[in-house]
Amino acid sequence: MEQIENVLAQRYASEKMKEIWSPRGRILLERDLWIAVLKAQKDLGLPIDDDVIPAYEKVRDTVNLQSIKDREKITRHDVKSRIEEFCELAGKEHIHKGMTSRDLTENVEQLQVYKALELTRSKAVAALVKLAEKADFYRHRIITARTHNVAAQPTTLGKRIAMFGQELLLALENLDRVIANYPVRGIKGAVGTQLDQLTLFNGDSGKVKLLEEKIVGHLGIGRSLNAVGQVYPRSLDHHVVSALYQLSSGPSSFAKTLRIMAGNETASEGFAKGQVGSSAMPHKMNSRSCERVNGFHLILNGYLNMVAGLAGDQWNEGDVSCSVVRRVALPDSFYAIDGMFETFLTVLNQMTIFPAVIERENTHYFPFLSSTTIMMEAVKKGAGRETAHEAIKEHAVATVHDLRNGVIDSNDLLDRLAADDRLGLTMDELKQILSRGEELVGAASAQVDAFMAEAEKWKTAYPEAAGYDPGNIL
Amino acid sequence: MEQIENVLAQRYASEKMKEIWSPRGRILLERDLWIAVLKAQKDLGLPIDDDVIPAYEKVRDTVNLQSIKDREKITRHDVKSRIEEFCELAGKEHIHKGMTSRDLTENVEQLQVYKALELTRSKAVAALVKLAEKADFYRHRIITARTHNVAAQPTTLGKRIAMFGQELLLALENLDRVIANYPVRGIKGAVGTQLDQLTLFNGDSGKVKLLEEKIVGHLGIGRSLNAVGQVYPRSLDHHVVSALYQLSSGPSSFAKTLRIMAGNETASEGFAKGQVGSSAMPHKMNSRSCERVNGFHLILNGYLNMVAGLAGDQWNEGDVSCSVVRRVALPDSFYAIDGMFETFLTVLNQMTIFPAVIERENTHYFPFLSSTTIMMEAVKKGAGRETAHEAIKEHAVATVHDLRNGVIDSNDLLDRLAADDRLGLTMDELKQILSRGEELVGAASAQVDAFMAEAEKWKTAYPEAAGYDPGNIL
Amino acid sequence: MEQIENVLAQRYASEKMKEIWSPRGRILLERDLWIAVLKAQKDLGLPIDDDVIPAYEKVRDTVNLQSIKDREKITRHDVKSRIEEFCELAGKEHIHKGMTSRDLTENVEQLQVYKALELTRSKAVAALVKLAEKADFYRHRIITARTHNVAAQPTTLGKRIAMFGQELLLALENLDRVIANYPVRGIKGAVGTQLDQLTLFNGDSGKVKLLEEKIVGHLGIGRSLNAVGQVYPRSLDHHVVSALYQLSSGPSSFAKTLRIMAGNETASEGFAKGQVGSSAMPHKMNSRSCERVNGFHLILNGYLNMVAGLAGDQWNEGDVSCSVVRRVALPDSFYAIDGMFETFLTVLNQMTIFPAVIERENTHYFPFLSSTTIMMEAVKKGAGRETAHEAIKEHAVATVHDLRNGVIDSNDLLDRLAADDRLGLTMDELKQILSRGEELVGAASAQVDAFMAEAEKWKTAYPEAAGYDPGNIL
Amino acid sequence: MEQIENVLAQRYASEKMKEIWSPRGRILLERDLWIAVLKAQKDLGLPIDDDVIPAYEKVRDTVNLQSIKDREKITRHDVKSRIEEFCELAGKEHIHKGMTSRDLTENVEQLQVYKALELTRSKAVAALVKLAEKADFYRHRIITARTHNVAAQPTTLGKRIAMFGQELLLALENLDRVIANYPVRGIKGAVGTQLDQLTLFNGDSGKVKLLEEKIVGHLGIGRSLNAVGQVYPRSLDHHVVSALYQLSSGPSSFAKTLRIMAGNETASEGFAKGQVGSSAMPHKMNSRSCERVNGFHLILNGYLNMVAGLAGDQWNEGDVSCSVVRRVALPDSFYAIDGMFETFLTVLNQMTIFPAVIERENTHYFPFLSSTTIMMEAVKKGAGRETAHEAIKEHAVATVHDLRNGVIDSNDLLDRLAADDRLGLTMDELKQILSRGEELVGAASAQVDAFMAEAEKWKTAYPEAAGYDPGNIL
């Protein structure tokens, strides 16, 4: 029967992410680990000839999955078959000394997690930088801010984008800390006591300690754990997937808001180049990609719940009720976050706004939103405060009433206010108050600047990531 | 009708945690915020007389809930009634200037979270230090390590405790980073543009920026957010509750393992002083507290799932679909983690072990677990490797068979081996091999030392926390 | 220190729901169970004088919590103190014979669940009936249906309401099945073997079987379980809370859609009588209650996740890692669903629509949505199909373009089409096509009828529930 | 790059389950739907020649995935390419009339769910029947029942198995109701108003209603929904996955308990034929499959959480934020439950018990568990009740103390009691009391009978399912 494919990987994830979690990718990381252990063992005095490590390094990338499968049919042992394959390719027999299966699998899975975290960070940086560009680009575009989905005060689109960028920034900072503090289990033996490595080094615990340090150094991971059992604590997986979930929160909120804006026709996630809307419904630009971003966010919460079930459920030195769960939840979480960023970056690249519609919305709401300012100006011109308040309230309520009941088609509050002697304001004066939109958006621009400065730091730190362009999405 | 109480708070949480989240506690934090804002505003040149702030500070702790309720009946506005109460007590009218309701509520709720995080950290430090003491105390107690719940290799109880302590340590380090990087929303106005504070300072954005810095300084929180909407990003709540969940993972794994050990009668969570077991079932020491620790862990995952539903669901500048959720999930998460630590600390204080039963278990399993060493010794004495391997395997399989089928009552593998000429080992020699238990536990002791050193750092940093003793639990 | 209240119960739930889960309510159910057991035991020949049961029944409602607490201080046993209280009130000593603590607590908690399910069903029926009324009321109100939040085809508001009603209907049918099939654990003894009841009836297993049947009959629950351990299977709790979550889904989707409609000003959740909008922002009718409905939905998912952690985690004949979880999740789930329905019913009572705004929306979109029909009419009048298609597409795309770019302020597609000779349609003919809105909504009205018929069945079955009016909500 | 496979499908699920969800399987169900619609349309008078439907039916199974892909490259539309392929194979052009894409995809996905539910039911029946066989087989095997993982009372292994079977039985009954009441969306058009079908039948709503009834009849599903939007309510997916989660709860509890029993060596999940334990550790029979059952249970909870995020989140007539989530969660849930049953059935087939170890456990605990009976016998022989109670308590506490402190190696309580004049019982009399084990297990056997009777009903209803044997698992 046909092979059932992993939908998240095949439809949404990038090649790089698939490489990390693919059978081939895993074998490469296993070989990296074996080589790192060999180097450390040699450094610490185990008799390993100088040509051994280069021999393995030379064939590191020669991965023949079929050959390994053929070996497994004979040995009936997957780790063994990989050892044999690698050794035969290298023409040496030195790897896996003093190691148990878990010494290989735990650390390699952690390497996969670590590499995938790094790749994810680079995507997050790309998204952050893109958000900063957009925030800058739209910094003067005044829009009607909404709370409870109802018009509240003016703001700018740039500020709104910076707001969602701020959420991503927090999550990225956290991700960076997760990476910086990520500890590998290390070479600890069957129950975590390092018995086999100690035996290899004749009980010299100092050397065993050094061995660990050297291995993590070779692998490029910052630290290793001290007291573990057969496995590393599964709450670490929860910690990782939780960081991914946090990471998709800002984009998810952005996507929801863009879906709402599309419903008001103030903005759209846009189309791919060359794509056109339905001829029957030329107005119908569906927010399919934004909906997908929201979908990935839910998916991540599902995987988070899976690994949550593993945390705090270690029996004694460990069991493998986690095995099938991690086999699914770890790669699939990373495929999901990767697909999320591919989609989100595409949305950022293609989103468009409709300034005329935005203007219409502003014109509709700003007379209401400016009523406090209008009152203050009326008072300045000599009106009594209570009188002015009462007059404005009367007219505003009546205007809303008439708009909603079809008596009028557009907001004529200014006309009504200009015609009311109690306020003493002319139409010109009223229009001028409303035209001071830039003042009404407060620190919006300064916040965009501050956000851009933060994004710039990340761009500087990861210049290559910042320039990443997403692949073509479905 | 009688008031329905919050079970988590009333049955399990400590007074200090309840104080933070109680109506009274919340009012105190509101007042702290108002005073912090006043101080910042005064520093920045707003005309506030020197006696104003002291007047408020003096009455900060005078909380009369009934009086506030009475005011609310008249004003129909909860925040307003609290402003009036505080002002009347102080005999001043200066607080809440340029602030909207969210400027108060968001920041105060974050202060509650922050204080609760600090309190939780102190409990976690206490637990860590206690685990280190226990790990040290049991460092020489050799036990049978289990993987898949089946005997695997020797280890020590001290090492096993350090292993769970290691998981707690990771979570505590993470919690500490969460606290260190926790940002408050700050005084940002209705849609996050700081319009009202800017108006107060006549458009001087530099002063508004300084205002924020000063407030967070007064409050003792490290940083404030830049671009926000009506609310701070709700993924921050997820970040916090996720850290709590991670924090309960090590204790939860410990508790599960102790429940399993109790089933084998190798250990028990103990009894409170004076308590005795059932006379009808004197052997029945139920692991009720350990079960409860596991229960709290599940509860935290439920609250995590609640706040997960808020993250990534911000519409525009914010809505309040989060309101009822946060009202429940935030305090209740902290009551749960607090109850968890109270229970866990009690378990650590009262746990007992049964050395004789542990010895019986070791005696039962160690002959099997030592078979590799026995083989090596036989080879040293001249036996062929394959011959020795075959002989040992034969006897081991037969011994297990006879034990499980009732042919024998205790493990007699050594007798069988001593009687087999192929191995050439006497009973004395075999017994000597098994008696070298300390060697078989590898780096167990060194790992306990390393764990203790880590715990010591936290004890030094938080000496008061380290000495905390839990209250009496139900 | 002040008692911390249960927020869900005290702020949102109804008195009836609180009564079920309150300490007093629990004691009443305990007494119901004891009396049911007594009756069954007497029926089956145990020597219980005729005046015994009436004596207990007479004092069933006399609940003195303080007196029970005082007893507990002496006995140190909560169940015992309640037995004594009830016996002293009745002047008899016959209850709890052959029962263990779990025989009481498991069944009483199930009774609480059962009563709460029934109460919830009545609220769901009330909501269903109200939805049917609203669907009928708005059956001719043509609105612009949206998919992807973008205008798609005409429908009616009545049909939209019926659509959400359909979802509630499915959930209500399921809830009804959950209630109909809900099994109680029964009187099964410490490990589920009924040892104590068997002893009481001298080993007569037939009588023990009858005893169970009689008890469930007295209690009004349909069935009891056969083989259980100390506890009933915890997946049953998951089954129950899952049904509650499904139940809140229709209301939650309705609430989200109303929040979106409020953003377009086509509808509003309305205000309580006497309440007025902000004078500064008279247009600002926040969807606070709808947001709250969405919040309750998330809360229920959190509790579902808690009880999910209990299902499938029974060790042997049972443990109590479930204890603290169920103490929180069971009552709080029911408070949440109850608060959800109170809020939802209020929204249904108070919601208003703005026909003029709806009309403006229809006018804006219907020319696009009718393009297929227009083409068909043009063809009828003699235009070539491809020519007509091309002409309409040209004008539609241009119209959308001009609207979004501010060239025009309102949809003038009809003008453009009327002016295009290729189509041969006059403005009158075009207007007539658009005026046939009722035809364009297809089976909307028939679906409303069908939905109303279903709701009517429930109204007939539960006439009292159907007339329920919610209490005042915050 | 190599294709990433779906781990759940490829490693754990059965061929039948993969067939349902495979690209090929989906195409077959699409064709079934198209044919069902054709039949209904013909029945209702649409002009469809008699040879049309047979022409389609004849080629229904001719699925050429490559050919469809090639078409898609040209049409750029997946549904269209499948229509063309099917039509060309049949040599007719009649399918998909009056249908929109969602009319196809929603219903086909529901058909997949429905078929998968049926397949799952058959596996559940197989497991239930196997549990009944095992319960019968072990009905006389007396074991020590445990609560809190501590010995509590005697029971039988048969009863324990029936207890977990009872949980599965409840879940199976529920699943059966889910299937019986499962409604399909039906042919409802783009926004659910059936506009296109009504047009096809010239506005004859009666015929459109009949059409739906006929289609569901042809498909074998019981009912269709009335008022829907673009999509069916997503809470229905939650309802389905929730039933799967409930279904895995009994097996999961069974698996946990077997893992605990394996730790005590009273039972084992066994080995596959031919497989042998490690020679170095012949006692080490890891509960890998039981752990996997527990893992699948967690996985299902993760998918449940994903679909929970879709329920109650429908905007207007529908959006597709659900799309990517359902693409993952629906098939993968069914792969998981399928893999769970394959594994669980294997465990049931291969599990073994160790009677001698069970006996040793009973001998160790029964003297304690029987103390109440012993007291009653002593009283019968003339001892004072209080005196007897005191004597037994003294000896029991002392025995436990001596056992746990290594003073004695086996439970000698009977010796102590026989030697105490206060009781007046001889060793023979005491032994006789303990030998009445069958009495001490109460209604265990009757409960096994009752459980078997229930299982028999399902076996009769689904004889083929009952005989199912799992495939070879990894």
From TrEMBL, chains A, B, C, D:
Example GO biological process: 'de novo' AMP biosynthetic process
Domain (Adenylosuccinate lyase C-terminal): residue spans on this chain: 366-452
SUPFAM superfamilies linked to this entry: L-aspartase-like
GO molecular function term, any single one: N6-(1,2-dicarboxyethyl)AMP AMP-lyase (fumarate-forming) activity
EC identifiers of the protein: 4.3.2.2
Family, as annotated: Belongs to the lyase 1 family. Adenylosuccinate lyase subfamily.
NCBIfam families (UniProt xref): purB (TIGR00928)
Annotated protein name in UniProt: Adenylosuccinate lyase
